[in-house]
Amino acid sequence: MQQKRAVLLLSGGLDSTTMLALATSEGYAVHALSFDYGQRHAAELAAARAVGHSFAVVEHKVIEIDLRAFGGSALTANIPVPKDRELKYDDTKIPITYVPARNTIFLSYALAFAEVAAAGEIFIGVNALDYSGYPDCRPEFIAAYERMANLATRAGVEADGDPAIRIRTPLIDMSKREIIELGLKLGVDYSLTISCYDPGADGEACGRCDACQLRLRGFSEAGANDPAVYATSATH
Questions:
Q1: pTM for this one?
Q2: Would you tell me which of 40, 87, 103, 175 could form a disulfide with 136, CB atoms 3.0–4.6 Å apart?
Q3: Which element (helix H / strand E) includes 51?
């Protein structure tokens, strides 16, 4: 019986690494896909390579695209990354760390990769419970994209019955604590990962941006130690 194939968007962060562990445990042959898109937290690319190697993915492609050409985000423009903010969900305010259309762009590449790799599933680590309120992390967006994917591809058009391509979002309804607990159960080495939006020159996490605070709170609620390296000035 042929092994199931999947394309998985791998950032090198906590969520995508947990998702990779889950996909691997479910028996998928994983084709990992990462992006060098001009993000200020490019240290995540080294983390993604280390994570992909640790899980022995079938292949790992790193695609270069320049979203700094558009800017509009603290991650792709000379806009300060917010620090020391209260983590409070508000879906009426989209934070400045939102990168315009990023998941739409990433999924388009993943869709092309899936067709070539004959992969029937695309894994993306979006989370609808995150405080961020990013519009491209919502279940409605994922459902709409999956419908489009099956209209716009040869695999979708030639499919007989069930959709040829499914977008998998196994973490979408999980809290950060639940994601960490799942990862620890699956044996994830979180020391390989980085979540920080504004890491130092040596890749150390700031401990103060939204992503760091959310990660630290998740580990605390899970009763576990975060093995990430933080700047000495960080409070955690």
A1: 0.94
A2: 103
A3: helix 43-54
